[in-house]
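Continuing from yesterday's entry. The apo prediction looked reasonable, so today I'm repeating it with 2-acetamido-2-deoxy-beta-D-glucopyranose included to see how the binding region is handled. Same sequence as before; SMILES copied from the compound registry.
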Amino acid sequence: IFAAPSMTGAEKSHPDTGINSVQSYQLSKNPHFTLVVKESPDGNKYPELVLEKSLDREKQNSHHLILTAVDGGDPVRSGTAHIRVNVTDANDNPPVFTEEIYKVSVRENLLRGSLVLQVKATDQDEGVYAQITYSFSNVPDNARTLFYLDPEKGRITNTRILDFEDTHKYMLGVEARDGGGQSAHSKVQITILDENDNAPEVTFTSVNSPVAEDSVPGTVIALIKVRDQDTGENGEVTCHIQHKLPFKIAVSSNILGISPIFMIFK
Ligand SMILES: *[C@@H]1O[C@H](CO)[C@@H](O)[C@H](O)[C@H]1NC(C)=O
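Holo prediction written out below.
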């Protein structure tokens, strides 16, 4: 609190004595300050400005008061002083994130160093008490070397290629800390979207070869398993035999529900 009084008028210094000296002081009406009038041993009255109700710089950062001194003469004379009280900042506000949880979906194979998401926190204080530094607070091991959080800007970028087949979803804890040590926490949920980046893998589970020339049509020659690591449409596969050959291919019922088994018939 800084008070800068400046007396105005003839009563700045009051040489009168007795009834003509200062009799009372008044303070303009305000919700925070009161006046306590004290008396020094030589009988002089002097006012003290006392804080009655706590101040909040974020609501009002300065207060203007008028102090009036009145004497007991006839005519009554008075003098005024303007008091300006500037309220300095205390770190009484923690940072606040704009979201409780940030959610974003990004395609796998996103280029390294791409912006995934930007988090933001605000702080009602000023100066260093409003200077926010971002950091990860709670990050699973598999994400530790995958994402980078810019401490000043809150930008999250990927430091490596994301792989849907490795992990579909990451949950990262982020912290915002102001220059006075107050902090806030939020979460970032990153969903990785599948891209068709895996080719089907074909494996023979059994082959009856060679095939006797007198095999009857409909004899099973081979069982084939086809697997595609992608999801949804990207993971659906069809099989067919190239060129005109005396074989046909058919899908067997997908009994185990894992991957379809194709059978080759003569
Ligand atoms: C009080 O605040 C005002 C307005 O911000 C500024 O002009 C003035 O210099 C300040 N006084 C002190 C003593 O800080």
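Comparison notes:
- The chain is about 0% helix and 45% strand.
- Residues 2, 4, 62, 86 surround 2-acetamido-2-deoxy-beta-D-glucopyranose (CB under 6 Å).
Will overlay with the apo model tomorrow.
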